[in-house]
Amino acid sequence: MDQSGTGPARPEPARRKAFYASPEKAAPDFVTGVVLFLLSLYVLVTSYRMPHFAGSGWLGSPGLTPGLIALVLLLLSLALMFRARDFRLRLGPLQPRIEGLRAGACFAMIFVYILVTPLIGYVPATFALLFVFQTAYARKLSVRYVLIWSIGLSALLTFILWYVFGEIFFVPLP
């Protein structure tokens, strides 16, 4: 019965559950969405301005693939911003969190990869980078994981990347 005693009690309408528990968790997603949106917009415009091969139109442009990837990234960054739209950005002191430290480690590994690739070659550098990523970001680290996933998957992905870019697309690899 309801409070007036005249009928059955109605359940309260289900409230929409907030995606983020706090504004602090939504702010990095929104900022990342803005940065990715601007970056993908730049790549999209730049790829559209690339020269076209004679008579083939935009489909013959070398910017077609980067443009399509930038368009997808543009749409995904918009989705990320809309998902995090209910936040308030706090401008307090910056405290490094585990996510920031991981992102910094990723950039550092990629920077080292860029420096080392001309010295030791594409295949060993790519294998080493993928191995380090697989091992460093493993949920659990065991001998079996290292043998199967870190070494096996890194070797397989290195071979696939070498074959696709070196043998199919004829990209000169260092």
Report on this structure.
By secondary structure, the protein is mostly helical. The chain folds into two domains: 20-92; 96-174, no CATH class. The chain has five helices and no strands. The protein has helices spanning 23-48, 64-83, 98-120, 122-136, 143-168. Helix 1 packs antiparallel against helix 2 and helix 3 (98-120) runs antiparallel to helix 4 (122-136). It starts with 22 loop residues before the first helix and ends in a 6-residue tail after the last helix.
What shape does the CA trace take? flat
Provide the succession of SSEs.
HHHHH
What is the CA–CA distance across the termini?
Answer: 77 Å
**DSSP E strands, number:** 0
Provide mean pLDDT, rounded: 79
Q: Which percent range describes the beta-strand content?
A: under 5%
Class by helix and strand content? Answer: mainly alpha
Q: What Rg, in angstroms, do the CA atoms define?
A: 24 Å
Q: Helical residue percent?
A: 55-70%
For the largest beta-sheet, the strand count, sense and barrel status come to: none
Helix and strand arrangement:
Elements: H1 23-48, H2 64-83, H3 98-120, H4 122-136, H5 143-168
Helix pairs in contact: 1-2, 3-4, 4-5
Q: What key attributes describe this structure?
A:
single chain; 174 residues; 2 domains; 5 helices; 0% strand
What's this, in brief?
With 174 residues, the chain is mostly helical. The chain folds into two domains: 73 residues; 79 residues, no CATH class. The chain contains five helices and no strands.
